[in-house]
Write a structure and sequence with these properties.
Elements lengths: L2 H29 L9 E6 L6 H16 L3 E6 L4 H10 L4 E5 H9 L8 E16 L15 E3 L6 H12 L9 E3 L6 H4 L6 E6 L4 H9 L3 E2 L4 H8 L9 E5 L5 H4 L4 E13 L4 H13 L1 H5 L23 H9 L3
Parallel strand pairs: 1-2, 1-3, 5-6, 5-7
Antiparallel strand pairs: 3-10, 4-7, 4-8, 4-10, 9-10
Helix pairs in contact: 2-10, 5-8, 10-12
Length: about 325
Amino acid sequence: MSTALTRISRRRALQGGVAGVVALGLLLWWMLPLGEEPPSGTITFSTGTRAGVYQEYGELLREELAKDMPQLKVRLLTSDGSQENVQRVATGRADFTIAAADAVDTYRIGGKPVMDRLRGVARLYDDYVQLVVPPDSDIRSVADLKGKRVAIGLPDSGVRLIATRVLEAAGIDPEKEITPRSDGIDTGPERLGHELDAFFWSSGVPTNGLKKIAETTSFRFVPIDADLVAKVHAQGDAAHFYRATNMPESAYPTVQNGSTVPTIAVSNLLITREDMDPRLTEWLTRTVIKSRDGIGAHVHSAQLVDLRTAIYTDPLGLHEGARRYYRSVKP
């Protein structure tokens, strides 16, 4: 090979190396703020029931946060669900949490004095209401639940909130015209068919608690059609956060057999308080967005976290730290 060709080859190799370094630099800029010492300390994250999506998402997010902020300790607290989560953050018992938008707005409508402290970090993914019955049940609609033993969720859960509204929209008094039970996803599936005639659940899909049951036991979903959702909307207040949709056929393939299920969806929000450190919140927001695919490989619903929609945290305004992050990546 001639000396001239050798020089050209070296120059091209050098140019390629520089391009690689630039690309790596851009990647690192997206992942972490260069030149900054990662935040440290301890935060408390309120999740949900042990068999639910909130808990699984919280565990996986903690792992991702440990990669980006190794000196930050994340303490997870299980909970009844959305309503308890909102209360915990508002009152300072937790620093971050996930809660359904209707639960956040219900807390706001309740006139709690600490509501003004709450701020949004990101809109995450949608919860789907899942009304589950045994395969041979005579329950074909929500109206058929009258007189039945029905699990309507833990007292401070988002499930309890939405199940109560759905029952009332169907003309059923949830205290007098059913036998209400306080089971969640951790106990509802195993009691179905002998202690329960039906149970409500609301979460991203699939939920491990149901997915595991579907592998060995048969059950059926009861549809919540658009006409009933319209009646729920007519209740006003936080009910406007619900929308009629279809649970995708891929949620529980062995149960749905290729069919979608008419139901209600409501968005989930990652929330914190106004006084949370802006820099820590900015870093946490960055981790939430960039870890979507990693967490989504285990929690399917997390694949729907999207930078373009994450900023819409209604009914809460964005936390300053989250706003800084979204501005930094704005095209």
